[in-house]
Design brief:
Layout lengths: L2 H7 L2 H17 L7 E3 L8 E3 L1 H9 L3 H11 L10 E3 L3 E4 L3 H13 L14 E5 L11 H19 L3 E5 L7 H14 L10 H17 L1 H15 L6 H22 L18 H10 L3 E4 L2 E4 L14 E4 L7 H15 L4 E5 L5 H13 L8 E5 L4 E2 L16 H19 L5 H21 L7 E2 L2 H4 L7 H18 L6 H6 L9 H10 L2 H11 L2 H21 L10 H22 L9
The chain binds one RNA strand through helix 3, strand 8, strand 9, helix 13 and helix 14.
RNA sequence: GCGCCCGUAGCUCAGCUGGAUAGAGCAACGGAUUUCUAAUCCGUAGGUCGCAGGUUCGAAUCCUGCCGGGCGUACCA
């Protein structure tokens, strides 16, 4: 790829920003960003530069007159019509049809990237997400971290980063001590060799938890057990292995169903760091950062206060000698920076852990383990609520198992497929129900601002109207249907598209769709920068809407010879973009028919 | 007490480093199918952006205070 092509592959908004910013510089002599944004209203054109008013303020001059001076030195004639000044000093820009057409052809010539440039090469990004607990089924509480993290990993990868997903499994914490203590009690310390199903383990877990909370002696046994495990001297290490294996057999298939790309190779659970933990504590002691307080070993990072206003501890070793999640997180951080060479580490966990991560980040910086060249990000998200606006639970108050949730979504989708398309073969109906059901669950999550809590509702997400997965899958299926019908109408789509020399964008719906197709890169870059999948779903929804308007206004196969290749190309690029966004970035299946 | 998040149309939510008349979807109402899938499209109606100040040419957006909700705040993760 040569330099020229690279330049033009840049998002249009970036090109305009650069051009206008430098025009402001040369016309006014101030370094003031152009602040180019898409216009709120089509009557103002496609993009507007808002920065002139700010520049005029700096210079204490009339913004309108300044805008005129800027336009005089501004050359965007290859992209836009003559810029217009409006209001107090907006510069309004309208994309030239010729540019639109050229750009569309260019995207077509590089269909894998869909007009999106790789912005960075090989910078290593660790994305820490999912992190289910061993010995428990995944429940709805794991859904958000798992799929949001997966989407972030996919977006960064597509943009050219060297992404290392990490699944920080909860396989070494206090809950394990409880399980061991219960095994000890039940078997009188005899190894059993029985394989335990996950259901057994869950029942065990429940029993252990309630004993732990009520029986002080049991709690002590549990703490001893986890300390033993942490010191590598536990009788139960074999049992521990079996429990981990059984749990993997459960959650790896769930990842498969969810279309989440985490594999066993991405797994570095808490136990992976077990040999580092004592050293972590020692080192922080040596650095005089860790001190004993109330029997526990703590670091007191700057600026954190507890209820009484005293320094807030980051506890790295409990008074009973066991390590805890702060210790493993420190070890993981060191490993990621020193061994993996991470330049950016993104932690995807719910918002309740915000304080923990703030303190973690503060500690590693104070210790000098991580310098400013490494970016640490905690990406938070809100809670999934039930329709009663309380944390999502079953009617009997149990946590909802992820498997059950997915099953129900697929079943409900299957009912609709049967209504709409009874004539399809069963196997295909199942496949569609699967794609629609799982897709609806994921999409509903992605399309919400991750900061807010959101109300989970099968009825809403499977309504198949509005901003939902099925709406977009449907748009895709319609395009595929056109392609299938083309043969019967003697239309050779491939030939028509590959022979296109110039486009004829005439109808408003064609132009709107074309313009939106060019904005894919802007959407992905914004979504990745902020780790906000809802920016991407917003883009895709708008694309599907614009396609649907186009579809009902413009005939494709029966279009005249002048229009048809252009329309076929619009269909093709729309389908590819929807497929790419849904499939490659959100991990949601598309279907050929629905 | 302190800290973080949230408060936008009847409901569920967008609103990108402050920008022009605050946008979608659902629900409501009215239209569109001899035409490539109507799981669709077109239109109507609906808002003191929690409240009060402040900064600004301009505030849903930034600052301060208050109200309401959620979460966190020493040995769970």
């Amino acid at each position: 790829m040569d330099g020229k092509l690279k330049l033009i592959m840049k998002p249009i908004i970036d090109i305009l920003n650069e051009r206008i910013s430098s025009a402001i510089m040369s016309a006014a002599g101030v370094d003031c960003p152009a602040v180019v944004k898409p216009t709120g209203d089509a009557k103002f054109g496609d993009y507007q530069a808002n920065g002139v008013m700010a520049a005029a303020k700096q210079l204490k001059c009339n913004p309108h007159q300044l805008a005129e001076k800027i336009i005089d030195v501004l050359d965007v004639s290859d992209i836009c019509e003559e810029p217009e000044i409006a209001g107090p000093g907006f510069i309004n820009l309208r994309i030239k049809p010729a540019f639109l057409e050229a750009k569309l052809l260019e995207i077509n010539s590089d269909a894998n990237q869909l007009g999106v440039d790789e912005i960075s090469k090989a910078e290593k990004v660790v994305v820490d997400f999912s992190g289910p607990n061993i010995a428990k089924q995944m429940h709805v509480g794991h859904l958000r971290s798992t799929i949001i993290g997966d989407c972030i990993a996919r977006m960064y990868k597509f943009l050219g980063y060297d992404v290392v997903p990490q699944n920080h499994i909860g396989d070494w914490g206090t809950q394990f001590g409880m399980l061991c203590a219960l095994l000890e009690k039940k078997t009188e310390k005899k190894k059993t060799n029985e394989t335990k199903t996950l259901e057994d383990l869950e029942a065990f877990y429940k029993e252990a938890k309630s004993l732990y909370d009520t029986d002080e002696e049991f709690a002590k046994t549990a703490r001893d057990a986890i300390r033993g495990l942490h010191n590598g001297e536990s009788f139960w290490i074999g049992e521990w292995n079996a429990i981990v294996r059984e749990s993997q057999n459960h959650y790896l298939p769930i990842y498969g169903r969810l279309g989440v790309r985490l594999t066993q190779e991405d797994e570095r659970g808490e136990s992976f760091y077990k040999d580092m933990l004592a050293g972590i504590v020692e080192q922080l002691k040596k650095q005089k950062l860790a001190t004993e307080s109330e029997g526990a070993i703590c670091v007191f990072p700057e600026g954190f206060k507890n209820k009484e206003g005293a320094a807030l501890p980051f506890i790295i070793q409990k008074s009973d000698g066991a390590f805890l999640y702060a210790t493993t997180d420190l070890a993981a951080m060191k490993f990621r920076v020193d061994e993996l060479g991470a330049k950016k580490i993104i932690y995807v966990t719910d918002a309740r852990q915000a304080l923990h991560f703030q303190m973690l980040f503060a500690v590693v910086k104070e210790a000098g383990w991580v310098d400013d060249s490494v970016e640490l990000k905690h990406i938070t998200f809100g809670t999934m609520l039930g329709e009663d606006n309380k944390p999502f639970k079953t009617r009997s108050g149990e946590t909802v198992k992820l498997k059950d949730l997915l099953d129900e979504a697929v079943e409900r989708a299957a009912v609709v497929v049967n209504e709409k398309n009874p004539e399809l073969p069963d196997e295909q109906k199942m496949q569609i129900a699967n794609a629609v059901g799982i897709g609806a669950v994921k999409y509903a999550d992605y399309s919400n601002n991750r900061d807010s809590d959101y109300v989970f509702s099968f009825d809403k997400m499977l309504a198949m109207e509005g901003n939902t997965a099925p709406y977009m899958q449907y748009a895709y299926a319609r395009i595929k249907s056109i392609e299938r019908k083309a043969g019967g109408k003697d239309v050779n789509i491939e030939a028509e598209i590959s022979n296109i020399k110039e486009l004829h964008l005439v109808e408003q719906q064609e132009i709107d769709l074309a313009k939106h197709l060019l904005k894919y890169s802007e959407a992905i870059i914004a979504a990745a920068a902020e780790c906000r999948p809802n920016f991407l779903t917003g883009y895709l929804y708008e694309l599907a809407q614009k396609f649907s308007s186009f579809y009902s206004a413009c005939q494709v196969l029966k279009a005249d010879e002048k229009s048809r290749p252009t329309r076929l190309l619009l269909c093709d690029l729309t389908a590819r973009t929807i497929k790419h966004g849904l499939n490659e970035l959100l991990g949601i299946e598309v279907v050929e028919q629905m």
